[in-house]
Amino acid sequence: MRVALVSLHKWEEPCLVGEKGAGTIFFSHCNLRCVYCQNFSVSQDGFGAEISVERLAEIFIEQQNRGAANIELVTPTHYVDKICAAIDLAKTRGLSLPIVWNSNGYENLETLELLRGRIDIFLPDLKYFDEEPAKIFSNAPNYFAVASAAIKKMFELVGSVKFDGNKMIRGMIVRHLILPNFRRDSIKIVDWLHETFGDEIFISLMNQYTPIFRAGEFKKINRALTTFEYQSVIEHAANIGVKNCFVQIGKTADKNFIPNFNLDGVNSV
Fold first, then answer.
1. Are residues 80 and 34 in contact, defined by beta-carbon separation less than 8 angstroms?
2. For 68-121, how does the pLDDT look when each residue is reduced to its tens digit (9 = 90+)?
3. How many CB atoms are located within 10 Å of the residue 250 CB?
4. What pLDDT was estimated at residue 258?
5. What is the mean pLDDT of residues 186-202?
6. Residues with Cβ < 8 Å from 178, sequence gap 6 or more?
7. Which residues pair with 50 in a beta bridge?
8. 175 and 204 in contact (C-beta within 8 Å)?
9. Bridge partners of 123?
10. Whether the Cβ atoms of residue 143 and residue 128 lie closer than 8 Å to each other
11. CA-to-CA distance for 127 and 104, rounded, in angstroms?
12. For residue 175, what are the contacts with CB-CB under 8 A and spacing of at least 6?
């Protein structure tokens, strides 16, 4: 496995961060090729350091000792076998935190079945409804068909959201990053999520799109999201009765929010 950063991350959804932050572990590489990826140095260029299953289990315990609200595995899918082994090992050593699977949603059902009993919270993206932007911007044929089936499977594995006070301990939050010029695609996604899951999950509507990496090669997405585009999706969600929804306020489309991938916490002290 390759890992680029281990951190206490305070900029996730409020129910995931607790007092000190989510215990994020950013894995290197990705099975998508999003032209606007803000973490491209990790996802596309593969920056990171190699670690063993043994070391990953140690990192889980270290994050727990730091006071992390959970163990959040970021873009983990391609290392699923080793991650499962590390989870099992860490639990024999006292790991008790909820484990979060933060993925792009483009996953097969066999992979997800391996996570049964190991993952408490699923945090997938649902990026596109229509086929064209999925192919052009992420090189992901049949994205919605694959991701929607995966998200249904995730729900089967963890069920409805459960909280301990203000902290989520089980369930699913589906993230959707709204792209400039694609608000109608976003509305279709909100409709599908609400029709399929109702109030059993949370939706997180994100306005933090930043034209970075190769976005400048594509005219439609080579700008920031407008207030109108974002508000129209939020208003639609409210109008159809969505209750469990996170929204972003203020200037979030800023490179300063991109993590500093510097290998902190990756290697043994």
1. no
2. 999 999 999 999 999 999 999 999 999 999 999 999 999 999 999 999 999 999
3. 7
4. 77
5. 98
6. 186, 205, 206, 207, 209, 225, 229, 230, 233
7. 2
8. yes
9. 102
10. yes
11. 8
12. 123, 124, 125, 126, 204, 206
Q: Using alpha carbons only, give the angle 256, 47, 23 rounded to the nearest 5 degrees.
A: 60
Say how many residues make up the chain. 269
Bridge partners of 209, per DSSP, are: none
Both tokens of 269, joined, read: 């002290």
d(CA 97, CA 85): 16
Write the secondary structure of 43-77 as one string of H (helix), E (strand) and C (coil).
HCCCCCEECCHHHHHHHHHHHHHCCCCCEEEECCH
pLDDT band at 255 (very low <50, low <70, confident <90, very high): low
State the residue for tokens 């999520």: 193
pTM: 0.96
